[in-house]
Design a protein that fits this description.
Nucleotidyltransferase, domain 5; 4 domains; five-stranded mixed sheet; two-stranded antiparallel sheet; 16 helices; extended
């Protein structure tokens, strides 16, 4: 055996969970499989498979049965949203329930594919400790998620309605979007309402402009000259009513989200893992001036991070919760969010794989935060500008989003931590100037510059 051989300790995978149950989830029924120690034959396992309807009464009866059997772990495969009744009711009964990714429980190719065999296979994987549970937040975070995700979906629907209005204006030869940044602002909305009410005079419509507008009244009148008919007015009025209704719903949801976050229980940090802070994470959770910062609301502390608005902070709290015990380190959270690329190694070749899809609501919020932070004169903005030169915009934004999530992990883990920016000159102030000068001189010499030209360049710069 080579002395360079790696020794892998797989003791964790050899542990046998004595009493397990697995459920292959369907819309109408769930195929339940239990594997328990045999009553008379030592070392043997007893397997039983049966159907359970996906109704509340049947699942509660199943929960009582599994509790009486002393089942230590119940494993469910995440199938659409059909897993929710089983998970919620079994969890409420006090049973240990794991939701696992369907990608991790695929059967061996070439074997028959039936619900019964899938349930047995899932139970065998569970009893050997070969599965990882997915993150399912507690009930109060799940309710908060419902609110923030509905607000996100309604906001997207509102954007689609606004795009439809602009399309109708183009059909009516009204070029309002070419002279107004936002046609649904104060000025644009006044003009749209007047068009719907029957006003067709471009000069009178242009006179409804309010506030500072780059376009002149003549330009506004030219853009408002078209063939807007009663047919267009009806379509625009219908869409404006939909937009107004969505605005009210979104405002109401925001109020409910604020109330839901204020009602969240304070997380118990006594059992939080005391993992060492990664080097990158230290940029976000450092006490101010070396002392102990005052306690503050979590949303306020998240809002201090460049690029994160209060609404983005609400989405982050709804998606990852307020207790980081499920993510022992920031690396676990980054990996769960699919913001760290896979490492693919074969032979002597090692390359980076894709990051994966991850939680689309969290990734969307972090993407917006990264794009906003990239424009700031902060550490995160400087990080983007350093990476974009050699990695491109998309990879640089993903890297900044990853840094933001590492900062975010620190704040709930330590209720006294506050964001402390390291500054845009963090890396440049730590450069070895002499070494950098020598590198630049070698680069100039490689381009064919003579010593006299180099001297002239430095003399001109001085």
């Amino acid at each position: 055996m080579s002395s360079s051989a790696d020794v892998v300790d797989d003791g964790d995978h050899e542990q046998i969970v004595a009493r397990v149950a697995a459920i292959d989830i369907g819309k109408r029924i769930g195929k339940v499989c239990t594997r328990l120690p045999h009553e008379t034959k030592e070392g043997r396992r007893h397997t039983r498979v049966w159907d359970v309807p996906s109704t509340t009464a049947a699942i509660i009866e199943l929960a009582d049965h599994l509790a009486c059997q002393g089942v230590e772990r119940i494993v469910l495969e995440a199938t659409s949203d059909y897993w929710r009744p089983f998970y919620y009711l079994l969890e409420a009964r006090g049973l240990a329930v794991w939701l696992v990714n369907a990608r991790d429980v695929k059967n061996v190719p070439g074997r028959p594919k039936t619900d019964k065999l899938d349930a047995v296979w899932l139970a065998k994987l569970a009893e050997r400790g070969m599965l990882r549970p997915s993150f399912v937040p507690p009930p109060e975070i799940r309710r908060l998620r419902d609110l923030t995700r509905l607000r996100h979906d309604l906001t997207a629907e509102r954007i689609r309605h606004k795009q439809r209005v602009e399309k109708i204006l183009e059909d009516a030869l009204i070029k309002l979007s070419t002279v107004l940044t936002d046609i649904f602002g104060v000025s644009g909305r006044a003009m749209l309402d007047a068009l719907v009410a029957g006003e067709r005079d471009p000069k009178k419509l242009a006179a409804l402009a309010r506030g500072p507008i780059k376009a002149t009244r003549t330009e506004l009148a030219a853009a408002l000259t078209g063939q807007f008919t009663d047919h267009h007015a009806y379509l625009v009025e219908t869409l404006l009513d939909q937009i107004d209704g969505l605005n009210r719903r979104i405002e109401d949801l925001t109020t409910r989200i604020d109330a839901a976050i204020a009602a969240l229980p304070t997380p118990d940090h006594g059992d939080s893992p005391s993992a060492p802070m990664p080097p990158t994470a230290s940029l976000g959770a450092a006490p101010l001036d070396g002392g102990t910062p005052p306690r503050a609301d979590l949303l306020d502390r998240l809002d201090e991070i460049p690029g994160i608005s209060r609404q983005t902070a609400q989405v982050i709290v709804a998606e990852i919760g307020t207790c980081m015990t499920q993510f022992p380190t920031s690396g676990h959270l980054v990996s769960w969010a699919k913001l760290s690329p896979l490492t693919i190694q074969s032979g002597a070749t090692t390359r980076r794989g894709k990051t994966g899809k991850g939680n689309r609501y969290l990734r969307g919020a972090l993407g917006e935060a990264a794009a906003a932070a990239a424009k700031t004169q902060t550490f995160l903005g400087a990080r983007y500008r350093r990476l974009v030169k050699r990695r491109g915009k998309l990879k640089a934004l993903v890297a900044v989003a990853r840094s933001i999530l590492i900062i975010v992990w620190q704040l709930p883990s330590d209720p006294t931590a506050r964001f402390h920016d390291l500054g845009a000159d963090y890396h440049t102030s730590r450069l070895n100037t002499d070494r950098r000068k020598r590198a630049l001189l070698r680069e100039l010499a490689g381009l064919g510059a003579t010593e006299a030209e180099i001297t002239a360049v430095f003399a001109g710069a001085a």
